[in-house]
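Troubleshooting log. The previous structure file for this entry was overwritten by mistake, so regenerating from the original sequence record. Sequence copied from the archived sheet and checked twice against the printout by T.R.
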Amino acid sequence: MLKIPCAFFESKESLFYEVFIRFHDQIHRRMLDEISRLGETIPPDQLSGLIYSLYKLADDSFLVRLFSEGELELILRKLPPEIAMAHREKDDFIVEYLAKTIPALRNMDTQLFSAALRGVFIAMLHKDEIGRHVFDEALKVMINGVVNQMYAGGKPDGCSGEPDALKNKGELV
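Regenerated output below.
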């Protein structure tokens, strides 16, 4: 006889979030397995390709389509804050694992780059606003940008301050 575990959830948001987390954990396991297989000398383009393939796996799943109309944000808002914090900590763990495993990434700010990768994922929920016809290429650009910054010493460069042209110019029209 097949036993089906039965769990009751306080709300439909809790149920949806649990489904999301289980899928999220499967993606993380795949990434950890692949990083372990590739070893510690992964070049940036290969890490970018791995992350892109995992994001596309998520993108092609039922889950992103389910959450693509703003449902994920609504679900997260209705859950207790400690649940969202636990999710962020899971994301931080995977980036910390990258930093420990790949010597070239040891100096990066793991919380910063975890947040950056979360931001790229959230962009997948806004394809129409970004432009569906260019979305996959834009996703690659975003992932490459984050990964290249990770390899560049772990500190964001380039946006070091307000450009001179904008200083003391008053309000924008």
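DSSP finds eight helices and no strands in the chain. Archived copy saved in two places this time.
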